[in-house]
Amino acid sequence: MSNRYELDPLHRNTPDAEFLDDLNRVAKSLEVPTVTISQYNEHGRFHASTIQRRFGSWRLSLERANLDQPVYANYSDEQLFDNLVEVWTHIGRQPRLAEITSRTSSISGDTYRRRFGSWRKALEAFVLWANQTEQMPPLEIEAQTAQRHRTPRRINDRLRFLVMRRDNFKCRITGRSPATDPSVVLEVDHIIPWDKGGETEFDNLQTLAKNVNIGKSNLGMSASDEI
Q: Taking the domains of the chain in order of start, what are their residue ranges?
């Protein structure tokens, strides 16, 4: 293995046909009528930005390759943010755009960039959303009060993300994290159980590895009881 620094090739002399052939190769391998930028960056020989510079835009690149134009789903901001919660939790830290692939996300990175202008702006909007204090509708508050609870039992995605971020995306019992062990699945659970009067509030929630949380449920005790 060479220990010399080397620059990646610029592909200035690469024929147009080679780029177009590779676009078609990726489409064929994925068995799809078109290719998104994220799909190409994941499976292509070149980088999508190189092809975009050559042909002027991704749309024109697909047109030259006789591929269909991609049809993007009209996701709501809430759906985009809920998906980011899943991705961030899965990775165990702030995700990079290059990590938004079909293996980690159900929504492409291109969708976030089109909606917010850039990946950074998408993350900024997500953090603002996550940090908002969610107000329960008055009728829901009344219903929960009648059941001797101030809060609903369900932990919403925004609160789940905030708890995991506070706990550094690590299980509070084992210290394990998806960032260092991809097999780890994290969940958020009540410290004082709901059926024992515990509320769905930030200070009464904790991050646990799924296997720890299942074991806690089977024993019928809270994590604080275990410790």
A: 16-64, 77-131, 149-226
Query: Can you tell me which residue has the tokens 């009648």?
Result: 146
Q: Is 137 helix (H, G, I), strand (E, B) or coil?
A: coil
Query: Could you tell me how many residues make up the chain?
Result: 227
| Residue the block writes with tokens 């997500």 | 126
Cross-strand partners of 187: 208
Give the separation between CA 116 and CA 119, rounded to whole angstroms.
Answer: 7
Q: Compute the distance between CA of residue 159 and CA of residue 187 in angstroms, rounded to an integer.
A: 12
Q: How many CA atoms lie within 13 A of 215 on its CB side?
A: 10
**What is the number of alpha carbons within 13 Å of residue 224 lying toward its C-beta?**
10
Q: What distance separates the 2 farthest-apart alpha carbons in the chain? A: 73
Query: What tens-digit pLDDT sequence spans the chain (227 residues)?
Result: 445 555 445 567 789 999 999 999 999 999 989 988 878 888 999 988 889 888 888 888 999 999 987 766 788 898 999 999 989 988 888 999 888 887 788 888 888 988 898 899 999 999 998 887 544 444 344 444 445 788 888 898 889 999 999 999 999 999 999 988 988 889 999 999 988 889 999 999 999 998 887 766 544 444 433 32
Between CA 44 and CA 62 the distance in angstroms is 14
Picking from 183, 224, 188, the residue whose alpha carbon sits closest to that of residue 208 is 188
Q: Find out whether 163 and 134 touch, Cβ atoms under 8 Å.
A: no
Identify residue 113 by its one-letter amino acid code: R
Which residues share a beta bridge with 206? 189
- Note the pTM of the prediction, 2 decimals: 0.59
